Structures are given as structure tokens and as C-alpha cells.
């Protein structure tokens, strides 16, 4: 009997059998990159990257906007962050129905293959991480997690931010471009902390 149980664990590891999170949960981390340092400086937040958790055949994936927009296994996503630290948030006041989860996942998959938007434009042509999360919830479920803010309202006077903006925009900085940050999402009044 014991050998049979070991065989089952080998074929179906616990990480694949138990669903610690739910489809649609939002996960946040700090990424070890220069851009992430700029995002954290601009938002005065420890979080610079985020994505949405979905299960496929009992395996958790994070749908995310990197280059290109796609998905990664949850364990790989966590390990890629600074010190493998992360936080997971979930809708508090609104229950995601099965149809809303399907719509959310479908919208995210439609974005797969798009280029990462390093200039943080609000158009749908390219996507950055928090934009993907925000637009998935808004376009698929009409749930507004936060309110986009113009670039000028972020903390853009820090040295790291100034250097990145000069590299990306030159002298044509889009101060009025609406943007959404991981910090705005992680602090959304609609979300509660799961982990």
C-alpha cells in the first residue's frame, strides 16, 4: 500500500493536486531588473510585476505581460522574483462566476504573443504587466480594480526613473499618458490578501 501511495505522489505531485489559489487570483512580486527598480521608485512600492493565476490540468500558471505576453508555471514565476517573495490578492466584494472566469481567461489568452510595452502606452497594441491585469478584469468582467493615473502623478523625479524615462522617451515624455501600476492594483479596495 505504501509503495502505491509513493507511486501516486510521483505521478501526481502534491503541487499539481492541490489548488492553493483560485482562477483569477492576482499575484505580485518584485522583479530583479533595472526597470523594476524604476517602477518601485516611481510608485514607492515593493511590487513591480504582477499577473493572473489560472489552472490548467490542476497546474497553476501565471498569465503575464513580459516579452512576449504569455504564461509561466507558478513555481517558475515565483522563483524569478527577488528572494522568491510574492503576495496573492483576490476579489473581496465580487464573486467571480464560472462564466466570468472563462471570459477573464479568454481575454488574457487573446493577448498572448503581443509585445511587452516598455513605454507604458495605454493602447492595446502592446501590453505591460499591470495593464494586462487591469484590462482583463475591466474588458472581460467590467470590474474596475483601480483608476489609471497620468504619468505626471507618479513619483517621476527620482534618479532611476529619470534615467529610464530619458532612455525610453528622449525629450518627448508623455506626462499625460494614463497608466496603471502594480502598486495601484495591490492596494485596490476590491482585493483582499490571500497569501
Describe this structure in words.
This protein starts with a helix and ends with a strand. It has eight helices and eight strands; from the N terminus they run H-H-E-H-E-E-E-H-E-H-H-E-H-E-H-E. A six-stranded antiparallel beta sheet has the order 4-3-2-1-5-8. Strands 6-7 form a two-stranded antiparallel ribbon. Helices cover 37% and strands 17% of the residues. The chain has a single domain (21-193), classed as endopeptidase domain like (from Nostoc punctiforme) (endopeptidase fold (from Nostoc punctiforme)), CATH 3.90.1720. The protein has 195 residues and is an alpha+beta fold.
Class derived from helix and strand content: alpha+beta
Topology as a string of helices (H) and strands (E): HHEHEEEHEHHEHEHE
Q: Please work out how many helical segments DSSP would assign.
A: 8
Task: Give start-end ranges of low-pLDDT stretches.
Answer: 1-17
| CATH superfamily caption | endopeptidase domain like (from Nostoc punctiforme)
Instruction: Give the mean pLDDT.
Output: 92
CATH class: Alpha Beta
Query: Strand portion, in percent?
Result: 15-25%
For the record, the count of structural domains works out to 1
| Total number of strands | 8
Q: According to CATH, what is the topology?
A: endopeptidase fold (from Nostoc punctiforme)
Bulk shape: globular
Largest sheet properties: 6 strands, antiparallel
Q: What is the CA-atom radius of gyration, in angstroms?
A: 18 Å
CATH architecture call: Alpha-Beta Complex
Separation of the first and last Cα atoms: 35 Å
Sheet with most strands: strand arrangement: 4-3-2-1-5-8
Q: Helical amount among residues, as a percent range?
A: 25-40%
Amino acid at each position: 500500500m505504501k509503495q502505491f501511495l509513493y507511486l501516486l505522489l510521483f505521478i501526481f505531485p502534491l503541487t499539481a493536486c492541490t489548488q492553493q489559489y483560485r482562477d483569477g487570483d492576482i499575484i505580485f512580486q518584485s522583479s530583479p531588473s533595472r526597470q523594476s527598480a524604476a517602477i518601485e521608485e516611481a510608485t514607492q512600492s515593493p511590487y513591480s510585476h504582477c499577473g493572473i493565476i489560472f489552472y490548467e490540468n490542476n497546474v497553476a500558471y501565471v498569465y503575464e505581460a513580459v516579452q512576449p505576453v504569455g504564461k509561466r508555471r507558478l513555481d517558475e514565476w515565483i522563483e524569478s522574483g527577488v528572494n522568491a517573495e510574492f503576495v496573492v490578492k483576490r476579489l473581496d466584494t465580487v464573486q467571480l462566476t464560472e462564466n466570468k472566469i472563462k471570459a477573464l481567461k479568454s481575454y488574457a489568452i487573446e493577448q498572448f504573443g503581443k509585445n511587452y510595452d516598455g513605454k507604458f502606452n495605454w493602447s492595446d497594441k502592446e501590453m505591460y504587466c499591470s495593464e494586462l491585469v487591469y484590462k482583463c478584469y475591466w474588458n472581460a468582467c467590467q470590474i474596475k480594480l483601480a483608476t489609471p493615473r497620468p504619468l505626471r502623478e507618479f513619483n517621476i523625479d527620482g534618479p532611476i526613473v529619470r534615467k529610464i524615462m530619458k532612455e525610453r522617451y528622449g525629450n518627448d515624455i508623455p506626462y499625460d499618458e494614463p497608466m496603471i501600476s502594480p502598486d495601484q492594483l495591490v492596494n485596490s479596495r476590491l482585493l483582499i490578501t490571500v497569501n
